Amino acid sequence: MASKITTQLAGTLFSSAVPDLHFSSSGHKVSVKLWEPSGAEGSSFLTAELDVYNQTATLYEVRDAVEEYMLAADKVYINFSVSYKDDTESEWNLAAADVVYCKRDANVDAATWLQSHFLTTRAAKQLPADGIDSVACYMEATGQDVTPTFTIVARKQDCSLTTLHYTPDALTNSTRIVTYALSAANIAAKAAELAGQDIKILSVAMAVGARMITWYVSPVKDDLTLNFKNCFGIQERAPLNAVTEAVTSDSRKVALVARNAELYNISPQRSFEMQTALLSTETAQWIEELLTSNEVYIDDDKVIITDYTYNVTNSHESMSNVKFTYRYVSPRAKLKGQQHQRIFTQQYDYIFN
Prior knowledge:
By secondary structure, the chain is mostly beta strands. It has 3 domains: 105 residues, Immunoglobulin-like; 105 residues, Immunoglobulin-like (Sandwich); 132 residues, Elongation Factor Tu (Ef-tu), domain 3 (Beta Barrel), CATH 2.40.30. Helix content is 12%, strand content 46%. It has a 7-stranded antiparallel beta sheet with strand order 17-16-20-21-22-19-18. The chain has a 5-stranded mixed beta sheet with strand order 2-8-7-4-5, covered by helices on one side. A 5-stranded mixed beta sheet has the order 9-15-14-11-12.
C-alpha cells in the first residue's frame, strides 16, 4: 500500500489555519519535504523522516514552520507544497494549497473572506488632507480584472454635498498580491476636474470586486506616522495624534587608568513615550497590530516598541486610548539631510526656533 496524506490540504488557507499533517502508510518510515515551487528548483524549508506507528505518521507544528519561512522570505502568499513517500516507494507524492499569511486565528473560510476583503482588518481609515496610504488584496489567479472604482463625497463651494464616481483605465494583475496607492492630493485634483470647481474632499471609498474600504479625509495634520507590517504582512500606515516625551539616559562605567579616571562602556539609551489622543474602539483594536508588529518604522528608521498599555472601551461616556514606549534600533541620532537656509536669504522671522 502506498503512503497517503489524510489531512485535507487544498484550496486557499490562512497561515494560522495550516494543520498538522497526518499520513497513512504500511511502511516503517515516511519522508516529508515542505517546500515552495519558486525559482528553478523550488525552496525547501523543512525536511523530516517520521516513524510509522499503527500505520500512521504525523508531522507537528507545520503552521510554525510555514509562518517562519514566510516571515524570513518576506512573502504574503506562497504555494505551499508537501512532498512525501514511505520506505516502500521510490516516487514522491505531492499535495499543495495556497497559503496567505495571517497572524490572527481565522475561523472563516479563507477563500470567501479574501474575495470580499482587502488585506487589512479595517473597513475605514483616516487620511490627512496631504497624506498618502496604500492597501492590498489577494487574487486567486493572475490576469484578472483588478480595476478599482472610486466614490468621492465632497463639499462644493456653495456648501452643498456632491457624490462623484470615477473608474480609471482597465487594469489586470500580473501577481497574486495587488497593491493600490492612494494620494489625497491626487484624489482632490481628480474630484475638482470631475466637478468643474475646487471642492473639499470628505471621504473616498474604493472598491475592487466585492472588496471595499473607505478613507475619511481629515484637515488635522498628524503628529506622527508609523509604518508597520500588519497581521497579513502588508505595510500599513498608522497616523497618530499624540503627545510624545523623549527620555534620554546614559549608562557609564569608570575605571582608573594610570591613576586617572576614564569612562568606558558608555551605553546611551533614548526612548520616546507616546500617549495618543482619544481613539474609537475600532482604531484602538487595530492599533494592537502596530504594538505587536515585528517591523515598525518612522520614516526610514526602524524602531522597536518596548512596552505598551491600552484601554479599549465601548462606553458612550469615554473613549479608548493607547500609551506606548518606542526606541530607535540604532542608538545614534540620525544626521538630517535638510539644509537650513542662509540668514540673508530666508524670510525674516523674529521667533527663533
